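Structure ticket #2291
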Amino acid sequence: MYAGCAYCVQKGPDPVVCPTDYNSNCGEFYNVSTGDICWKIISLYPPLTLDQLYAYNPSIHRIPECDNLIPGCKYCVRINSVPEPHQQNIKTGCHQYYQAVAGDYCYRVAINYGIDVGAFMSWNPDVGSGCLNMLAGYWYCVKP
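Resolution: structure written out below.
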């Protein structure tokens, strides 16, 4: 034996394997603690519903209801969805969107949100290289 080294003296339980089948567009996770139940999770994330929690996390048992949450594992509680209407090639997975009004242009929106105009245009490429295709009423990504 060597000083400073760890040695196994008793076989313990198998390591925890967390589910990874949650929705790929997940925008926010909850880390489960011992004793957590689905109803507690949805109460922390309104307007999340039980059906949405199940849909976002297919590994959670529906019957018997929510009996397999694993402490220390993360579960999806919010999906990033792009509001409608939006241009086709908008960056997916944004955390914040802005709805354009008449007279808006890329530089104004970028300044208002404290972001680089080039970054804004890369997240919203359908505005075009000269930002001539920014449409009033449409949603644009302002925070990835």
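Closing remark: The first strand starts at residue 26 and ends at 31.
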